[in-house]
Each structure stands twice: as structure tokens, then as C-alpha cells.
UniProtKB/TrEMBL annotation, chain A:
This is Complex I subunit 5 family protein. It comes from the Archaea. The chain crosses the membrane at residues 6-22, 34-52, 72-99, 111-130, 136-155, 167-187, 259-279, 291-314, 321-343, 349-378, 399-422, 442-465, 486-503. Residues 72-109 form the NADH-Ubiquinone oxidoreductase (complex I) chain 5 N-terminal domain. It is a multi-pass membrane protein. InterPro entries: CPA3_Na-H_Antiporter_D, NADH_UbQ_OxRdtase, ND/Mrp_TM, Proton_antipo_N. The lineage of its organism: Archaea, Methanobacteriati, Methanobacteriota, Stenosarchaea group, Halobacteria. Pfam families: Proton_antipo_M (PF00361), Proton_antipo_N (PF00662). Keywords: Cell membrane, Membrane, Transmembrane, Transmembrane helix. It is found in: Cell membrane.
TrEMBL record, chain B:
This is Sodium:proton antiporter. The keyword Membrane applies. GO terms for cellular component: plasma membrane. It is found in: Cell membrane. Keywords: Cell membrane, Membrane, Transmembrane, Transmembrane helix. The keyword Membrane applies. PANTHER family: ANTIPORTER SUBUNIT MNHC2-RELATED (PTHR34583). It is a multi-pass membrane protein. It holds the Pfam family Oxidored_q2.
TrEMBL record, chain C:
Its main location: membrane. This is MnhB domain-containing protein. The chain crosses the membrane at residues 12-29, 35-53, 85-103, 134-153. It comes from Halorubrum yunnanense. Residues 5-146 form the Na+/H+ antiporter MnhB subunit-related protein domain. It is found in: Cell membrane. It is a multi-pass membrane protein. InterPro entries: CPA3_antiporter_subunitB, MnhB.
Length: 535, 114, 154
């Protein structure tokens, strides 16, 4: 039991209340908000180092809120997977809030911008930390309610319509999630994820029938895919991403989407993987819910890559290009996860594929965060986000363009940037998937990745050539980029380069995370349920 | 009793989904409320609706010793939490639908320009 | 809606609703009730006043103050007061969560004491959960009344 586990959550929630209280003093409010974000990064780093990565770290730790023992109370667990996601959230979060202070107008910041930002962070942190299925639903809602308001933040016709659509879709998603959670409770008799994993592993010892778990987990998959914006649940993505303030869009793409991916990995690989339930559908037989996950998530990922790639190629606005691109990139994360689900449970390959997905998620968080912020900086400087009105930015503001260049190259996957390793590992997983599981579906995954990579090159080149090369247009000639915004972009670009150059420790971190995701027994141990006594 | 609950859950989901698919903004908001209610009824049903004996209530069955004659408290806590959340969401949806109506000058979702 | 029937009904029911709300709030930590439901009932009582009289009645009729017109609804004194209640509630909730940590318990740990020999009641149970509930109560009252007054002013 360590206080460090809950520290990031407490820092974020305290900052949210403080910034709300300081609403009448804008300067102090901004300072508190940035200070809170710095505190968040500090608490995450200390917690991750002391509990997961450091030399004397136990590898994982647990916090029982309110001193209620698991499985009755709410359990927070910080293990490798949570630590990886939290680190990502902290990185994108601090960049996003620093950019916000320089980008969002003072008048708009005074309204509920800062409290809501930190509530978004609270929701994300809670979702990464919680070890309780219903609690996961609650953190999703915290995150979503902040997101609804952010999408409607500017109050234009476009923003309110996008927010309303986003809300309706997610309310239905939440209803489905409640149905799944309630059903799992009735089927297994518990909501604690560790307890559920333990019970599903030995259903006879607890007198439960794990048969409904396959269907209920499929329901959960739909909800998580909605959060991650995977095809066919991607409809809210372009509208919401273009309507929300740009720093928040960076948070959406970099962090809240990853919550959906995290939930899929956590629920399926840590919890449901322990169940041995025969899945017998037409054309699909497997021994555990993962057998169901592999083809469905794989199909979703492949479709996302196609829809996102082709969508991004045709867009004119920078933000729209990146919004569609982000649909496609989530597909790149989903495909390795699906390959991992299809892999042999005992082999080491499953962990490699999960690590590939995590590295890609990190790459996407950094690169897409950078690009969304850069799109906002460009729009702020030139007063237009349309590619046809842009041109020659590379000569006009070289530093800003340099940051964008790094982001685009990372998206394409050029070594030694982070994106290269993301793509390389995804392809590696796909090729190994064909080797271990030959068949048309594995080949399709590889082909989809190839097509996706080509499409990425296509739209990245298009953005660069039409927006940054060529003769300076009228909008660009009068443009002046804000130095504070550019500084944040340069810092993010440096992070993209540095993570790529010093990739070894990052990969070991991802491996730790993948191992933690797959090791259900360790998870149960950490939560403290293997002591033998049932109460 | 469980048949009645099943019918209620099914009916509520049907009505809610029907309302969510309407063009009129207010009906969509009603749909949000009804769908949430449907999940509450469903959650309560998941805890077992007969007198709480050991084999009906999972948490009592396998965790404790003697089983008191009470309903499953966990589902009630879940429903309470879900009600609070859906209360907030519905309030937000109402305000948002009003704003969306003001900005887009139409209650009909299909007439929105974007 | 400001008919005589409505006003008379409101006069009778509002105090009853408020008393029920407070009793629900006080017993909420171990009986049906609690901060949320108490807060919603309290807000409902205020909404009844708004419906039976009008939006300015709380300021002009009850508090006997001049109502400032022409400002944005967010600047009105009642609305600022509601927002302060909301904020106070959040602070109380957080503080009650941190309170347990001061004596080394995990976040949100609750406890209770039985006080005996109290006049009239003889025995009173004091639960720290009541403090948390108070926070919830204030948050609910503050947020619901802010929403209602801002939306109805539109």
C-alpha cells in the first residue's frame, strides 16, 4: 500500500478545485494550473520510478481507497501498464497546458477552462489506475463530461452540434458499458478486476459459470472501441477534434483515445484471458474470449487504417487531416493488439506484440500531440487552417516548420524518430504473426499496415508540400508565430527525437508494461487476493 | 418477477432507442434519459430481485458466512452512482440541446448545416 | 404560473420539503438518503419558489435587496452565491478525503464515534461520512441551482 499510487490523482483533483476557486484571479489561476500540471508530472515520475522502474522498485503497487480491503472497496493499482500510460498522459498533459496558456484567449481561459482541463486529467488518471470495473466506468464518465464541455467550448454552430453528437453516442456507449458491467457482476460475482481474473481462472472453485463472459466482453469491446475511435465507431472523431480547442484536441488524440486502448488491453489480456470458455461461432473457434477479440479487433483496426488514411488524404484543413490521420493511427495500435490476441498464450510473442502496440501509442501521443498543437499555432499565426491558403511557411517561420517537419517524419516512420520504432515494431509483429499463424487474416493485417504506411506518406507529403513549401501566400506573409507556442512545439519535437535516439530504455519500459498486462497472476497478487482467505 | 423486469428493461431500451433515433432534439434528450433508466432497472435485476438468499446474491454467496436476508447492496450502490452520473449528463444534454438549437436555429438534427 | 393556488401551495410545501431534505441528508450515512438526494430535494424546493413567484423573488422578496438588472446572469448575486456553494462543497469533499490521511489512514477513510450522555438525544452517532455528505449536498445544491437559474434566465 503506497501513497504514491494515488498521488497523481490527488494532485490533479486538488488542482482542479484550486483553479476553480481562483476563477476571479486569472493570473493566479493560470499559475496554479501550470503549477498543478508540473506537480502532476512530478508525482507521476516519482511514483513510476519508485514503484515500477527504479532499481529497488517492487514492480507494482496497490492502494485501497478508504481502507476497504479488496475486492469490496475501490482498488487503485499502479503496475507497468498503468505506469506506461500515465507517463504518456503526463507528457502530453504538460505540453498541452503550457500551450493552452499561450494559445487560448485570456477571456476564454477565465471561464472553466483550467478546472475542466484538470478534471479531464483526473478522469484519465483514474481510468489508468483503477482496478475495479465499475470504477472504470465512473472515470470514463468524469473524462467524458469534461470532454463534452470542451467540444462545445467555443459555442459555435459547429461546436455545439459536434458536442451533442459526441454526447449522444457516448451516453449510449455508457449504457452498454453498464449493461456489460452489470452482467459481469451477475456472472462472476465481483467487480474487482483482479478478483474477476482469479475467479475466471478457476470458475469451479467459486461456483460460477464463465460462459456469458464472451458476450459481455464483446459488449465492452464495442464501448472501448467507441472511446478509441475505431471504425465503425469513428463518426464522432473528426467533428469533435476540429471543434475542441486545439490543446484539448492534442489531449484527446494523445491521451483519451489511449484510454480506450488501455481498457481493451487491461480487460482482455489481464482479466478475460484467464477464462477458458469455448467460443464457437461460424468460422471462429477458440478457447478463450481472446479468440473472439483477435479477428474482431483486427478487422476494426484494418478498417480504421483504411478509413483514416483515405479520409486524411482528401482533407483541406490541417486539423481535419490530422483528425482522420488519428483514426488511422489508432488502427495501427489496434492491429498489433489483435495479433497479440491471436498469438500463442504461452509464447513470448504475445508480449512483443503488446509492446509494439504500446510503443506505437507513445509515438502517436507525442507526434500527434505535436502536430495538433502545430496546426493550432499555424492557424493562430496565419488566421487560416486551410492548406490551399497556406504555402511557403518553411521559409517564413523556420522553427515552427521544423517542429512540424519532425512530427510529419515521425508519422511517416523515419529513423531515428519515435515513429520509426512504432512502425517497425508493428510490422515486426505482423510478420511474426504470419509466421506463427499462417493464413489470409494475418496476411491481410500486414497488407493493411503497408497500405496505411503508404497513405501516411501520401498525406504527410501533401501537408508539407502544399503548406510549407512553395511561394508564400498572402496569409503567410503577414503571419507571426507566437514564440511561447513555438517553444512548446520545439520541446515536443525534441521529445520525439530523443525518445527515438534513446529508444532502449523506452522499449524496456514498454516491455515491462506488456509483461504486466499479460501477467494476471502477478496482478492478482499485487491486489492482495492470493493470501488464501476470502474475506 | 424476473419476467416482468425483463419486459421492463426491454421495453425501456426499445423506447429509448426509438427516441434517440428521432430528428427532434428534445426527443433525443428524452431518449438519453430513458436509455439510462433502462440500464438502472437492468442493474437492479442483475443483483437478484428475490429475497437475498445465498445462491441469488453472488457477493453474499461466496464471500461471507451466514447470509442475512437482504437484497444485494452492491447493485444498489452501482445504480445510485449511475443515477448521479446520468443526472449530470442529462442536465448537460438539455443545456447543450438548447445551445445547439440557438446556434443552428433548428430543433431538427437533419437541418443542421454541419 | 404565478397563480394564487400555486403560491399558496408553495408556501405550504416548501418548508416541508426543506425539512425532509435536511432529514434525508442527516440520516444518509447509514439509512436511505444522503447528500445527493437531500441536495436535489433542497434544490427542488428552491425551484418551486422560482416557479410560483419569479426569478427575482429570492432577492427582492426574501432578502429584501434591490435586484440589479442589465448584467449578465452569471454576475447576479444569487448565481454567484450558488457557484460559491458549489465550490465550498468541492472543498469540503476534498478536505474530508484528506482528513483521514492526516492521521495516517488512506484517502477517503471514514470513521464514527458514539457520543453518550448528550442532553435530549442521550446517544448520538457522529460519522465522518456526514462531512463528506455535506460536501456532496453543497455541490448538488450549488450546481443544480446554478443550472436552473442560468437556464431559466435565458
Amino acid at each position: 500500500m503506497s501513497l504514491l499510487v494515488i498521488a497523481p490523482l490527488l494532485v490533479a483533483v486538488t488542482t482542479a478545485v484550486c483553479t476553480l476557486a481562483l476563477g476571479r484571479r486569472p493570473r493566479l489561476q493560470r499559475a496554479a494550473s501550470v503549477g498543478g500540471a508540473v506537480g502532476y508530472v512530478a508525482s507521476v515520475s516519482v511514483a513510476v520510478w519508485a514503484l515500477v522502474l527504479g532499481p529497488a522498485a517492487p514492480g507494482a503497487a496497490v492502494y485501497q481507497v478508504g481502507d476497504w480491503p479488496a475486492p469490496f472497496g475501490i482498488t487503485l493499482v499502479l503496475d507497468g501498464l498503468s505506469a506506461f500510460m500515465l507517463t504518456m498522459a503526463a507528457g502530453v498533459g504538460i505540453a498541452s497546458i503550457l500551450f493552452s496558456v499561450r494559445y487560448v484567449s485570456r477571456e476564454n481561459q477565465r471561464v472553466y477552462y483550467h478546472p475542466l482541463f484538470h478534471m479531464l486529467l483526473v478522469g484519465v488518471t483514474g481510468a489508468f489506475l483503477t482496478g475495479d470495473l465499475f470504477n472504470l466506468f465512473v472515470w470514463f464518465e468524469v473524462m467524458l463530461i469534461a470532454s463534452y464541455v470542451f467540444v462545445a467550448f467555443y459555442g459555435t454552430d459547429h461546436a455545439t452540434a459536434a458536442s451533442f453528437r459526441y454526447l449522444v453516442m457516448n451516453v449510449f456507449g455508457s449504457a452498454l458499458m453498464l449493461v456489460a458491467v452489470g452482467g459481469l457482476y451477475a456472472a462472476t460475482g465481483t467487480l474487482n478486476m483482479a478478483d474477476m481474473a482469479r475467479r475466471l481462472a478457476t470458475p469451479d472453485a467459486y461456483g460460477i459459470d464463465p460462459a456469458p463472459v464472451v458476450g459481455l466482453s464483446a459488449l465492452l469491446l464495442a464501448v472501448f472501441a467507441l472511446k478509441a475511435g475505431l471504425v465503425p465507431f469513428q463518426f464522432w472523431v473528426p467533428g469533435a477534434y476540429t471543434a475542441a480547442p486545439a490543446p484539448i484536441t492534442a489531449m484527446f488524440a494523445g491521451v483519451t483515445k489511449k484510454v480506450g486502448i488501455y481498457a481493451i488491453v487491461r480487460c482482455y489480456f489481464t482479466v478475460f484471458a484467464t477464462a477458458s470458455v469455448p467460443v464457437d461461432l461460424p468460422g471462429l473457434t477458440a478457447a478463450s474470449p481472446l479468440g473472439f477479440l483477435a479477428p474482431v479487433l483486427g478487422a476494426m483496426g484494418v478498417a480504421s487504417i483504411a478509413v483514416g488514411g483515405f479520409g486524411a488524404v482528401g482533407r483541406d484543413r490541417l486539423e481535419s487531416v490530422f483528425a482522420y490521420s488519428s483514426v488511422g493511427q489508432v488502427g495501427f495500435i489496434a492491429v498489433p493488439v489483435a495479433i497479440a490476441a491471436a498469438a500463442d498464450p504461452a509464447g513470448a510473442f504475445r508480449g512483443v506484440a503488446i509492446a509494439a502496440a504500446l510503443v506505437f501509442a507513445l509515438h502517436h501521443a507525442l507526434a500527434k500531440g505535436l502536430l495538433f498543437l502545430a496546426a493550432a499555432a499555424v492557424e493562430d499565426a496565419t488566421k487560416t487552417g486551410r492548406l490551399r491558403h497556406l504555402g511557403g511557411l518553411a521559409g517564413h517561420s523556420p522553427v515552427l516548420s521544423g517542429a512540424v517537419f519532425v512530427g510529419l517524419l515521425s508519422l511517416i516512420g523515419l529513423p531515428p524518430l519515435t515513429g520509426f520504432f512504432g512502425k517497425f515494431l508493428a510490422f515486426d509483429a505482423a510478420v511474426r504473426g504470419i509466421a506463427s499463424n499462417p493464413g489470409p487474416s494475418s496476411a491481410l493485417a500486414l497488407v493493411a499496415l503497408l497500405v496505411g504506411a503508404v497513405l501516411t506518406i501520401l498525406y504527410a507529403t501533401r501537408v508539407w508540400t502544399s503548406g510549407f513549401w512553395g511561394r508564400e501566400t498572402a496569409a503567410v506573409e503577414v503571419a507571426s508565430a507566437d514564440s511561447g507556442q513555438v517553444a512548446v512545439l520545439v520541446a515536443l519535437a525534441a521529445a520525439v527525437v530523443l525518445v527515438g535516439v534513446g529508444f532502449d530504455p523506452v522499449y524496456r519500459f514498454a516491455e515491462t508494461a506488456a509483461t504486466a498486462a499479460l501477467d494476471s497472476e502477478a496482478y492478482v497478487d499485487v491486489v492482495g487476493l492470493n493470501g488464501g482467505d476470502r474475506a | 418477477m424476473s419476467a416482468a423486469l425483463a419486459v421492463a428493461v426491454g421495453g425501456l431500451f426499445a423506447v429509448g432507442t426509438f427516441l434517440l433515433l428521432q430528428r427532434d432534439l428534445v426527443r433525443v434528450v428524452f431518449g438519453i434519459a430513458v436509455v439510462s433508466q433502462a440500464t438502472f432497472v437492468y442493474l437492479i435485476a442483475m443483483g437478484g430481485i428475490e429475497e437475498g438468499t445465498g445462491d441469488l446474491v453472488p457477493v453474499l454467496d461466496t464471500h461471507g458466512g451466514a447470509v442475512p436476508e437482504i437484497a444485494d447492496p452492491v447493485v444498489q450502490a452501482l445504480v445510485l452512482t449511475a443515477i448521479v452520473i446520468s443526472f449530470g449528463t442529462t442536465a448537460l444534454a438539455l443545456v447543450l440541446s438548447y445551445r445547439a438549437y440557438e446556434e443552428n436555429e433548428s430543433m431538427d438534427v437533419t437541418e443542421w448545416s454541419r | 404560473m404565478t397563480t394564487t393556488i400555486m403560491r399558496t401551495t408553495a408556501r405550504v410545501t416548501v418548508p416541508v420539503v426543506l425539512v425532509v431534505a435536511i432529514s434525508l441528508f442527516l440520516q444518509g450515512h447509514n439509512l436511505p438518503g444522503g447528500g445527493f438526494i437531500g441536495g436535489v430535494l433542497t434544490a427542488a424546493a428552491f425551484v418551486l419558489i422560482y416557479v410560483a413567484y419569479d426569478l427575482d423573488y429570492l432577492e427582492s422578496g426574501v432578502l429584501g435587496r434591490e435586484v440589479e438588472h442589465g448584467t449578465s446572469v452569471f454576475e447576479q448575486r444569487t448565481v454567484t452565491a450558488y457557484r460559491r456553494i458549489l465550490l465550498a462543497g468541492l472543498v469540503v469533499v476534498l478536505a474530508s478525503g484528506f482528513g483521514g490521511m492526516l492521521i495516517g489512514d488512506p484517502f477517503l477513510t471514514q470513521g464514527y464515534v458514539h457520543l453518550e450522555g448528550v442532553p435530549i438525544y442521550r446517544e448520538v452517532e457522529l460519522a465522518s461520512a456526514l462531512l463528506f455528505d455535506l460536501g456532496v449536498y453543497l455541490v448538488v445544491v450549488g450546481s443544480v441551482l446554478t443550472i436552473v437559474s442560468v437556464v431559466s434566465a435565458e
